[in-house]
């Protein structure tokens, strides 16, 4: 469990004990027909790739400093990775707007 999740759970429990309303959490489901991931040939080391996955999805928004670090270290983003970043941002926006499901079909994808 990450620190952010722990603090969020702790905050919810404190609100519950005080009798305050706990905001409903939404984890949006996003379906797309495009590849969205960090390719093995872009970040070849599995541990390092997993490290970046964790850093990218642990925040409520993709941090520019993480993207700059990745670009400086590994070069221009492949299409699959750019799609992944877009989906992370879309999911975080959907979460804020309490949208539960998004289905995107791109023709010729």
Outline:
This protein is mostly helical. 52% of the residues lie in helices and 7% in strands. It is built from 4 helices and 2 strands.
Structure description:
It contains 4 helices and 2 strands; from the N terminus they run H-E-H-H-H-E. The protein has helices spanning 3-18, 46-57, 64-74, 79-96; strands at 29-32, 101-104. The protein has a two-stranded parallel sheet with strand order 1-2. The model has no long low-confidence stretch (mean pLDDT 86).
CATH class: Alpha Beta
Supply the helix-strand structural class.
Answer: mainly alpha
The appropriate CATH architecture is: Alpha-Beta Complex
Distance between the termini: 35 Å
Q: And the CATH topology?
A: Aspartate Aminotransferase, domain 1
List low-pLDDT spans. none
**How helical, in percent, are the residues?**
40-55%
DSSP strand content: 5-15%
Task: Please write out the topology.
Elements: H1 3-18, E1 29-32, H2 46-57, H3 64-74, H4 79-96, E2 101-104
Parallel strand pairs: 1-2
Keywords:
Aspartate Aminotransferase, domain 1; 7% strand; mainly alpha
């Amino acid at each position: 469990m990450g620190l952010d999740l722990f603090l969020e759970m702790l905050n919810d429990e404190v609100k519950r004990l005080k009798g305050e309303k706990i905001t409903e959490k939404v984890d949006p489901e996003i379906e797309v027909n495009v590849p969205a991931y960090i390719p093995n040939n872009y970040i070849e080391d599995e541990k390092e790739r997993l490290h970046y996955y964790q850093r990218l999805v642990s925040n409520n928004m993709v941090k520019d400093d993480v993207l700059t670090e990745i670009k400086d270290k590994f070069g221009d983003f492949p299409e699959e990775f750019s799609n992944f970043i877009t989906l992370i941002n879309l999911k975080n926006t959907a979460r804020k707007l309490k949208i539960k499901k998004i289905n995107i079909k791109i023709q010729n994808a």
